[in-house]
């Protein structure tokens, strides 16, 4: 039973990775209590972060958010502290001189 659940979880994770890679999107989550952000491999690539087990915080990533988007993104992050739930926001990421 446990083995089947493990196989199923691995299968689901692989299908999710294939789908996000094909769509060119990334997955990440933010723990509002600890301010720790977990990024999938695609998110690490999008943010140009090396694979690492280091703790990533919102402030670490905010330096890479386009200045015209930063206030709106900060407001969205703050809102999650007041009203927990799922949020979706689009913003630009700075990559040297490029914007993604």
TrEMBL record:
PAS fold-3 domain ranges (all copies): 38-94
Signal sequence, start to end: none
Pfam family, one: PAS_3
Domain of life of the native organism: Bacteria
SUPFAM superfamilies: PYP-like sensor domain (PAS domain)
Protein name in the entry: PAS fold-3 domain-containing protein
């Amino acid at each position: 039973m446990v083995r089947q659940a493990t196989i199923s979880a691995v299968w689901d994770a692989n299908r999710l990775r294939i789908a996000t890679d094909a769509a060119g999107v990334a997955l990440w989550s933010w723990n509002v209590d600890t301010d720790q952000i977990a990024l999938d491999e695609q998110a690490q690539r999008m943010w140009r972060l090396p694979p690492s087990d280091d703790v990533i915080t919102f402030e670490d990533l905010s330096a890479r958010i386009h200045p015209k988007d930063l206030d709106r993104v900060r407001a969205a992050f703050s809102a999650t502290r007041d009203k927990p739930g799922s949020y979706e926001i689009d913003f630009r990421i700075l990559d040297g001189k490029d914007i993604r």
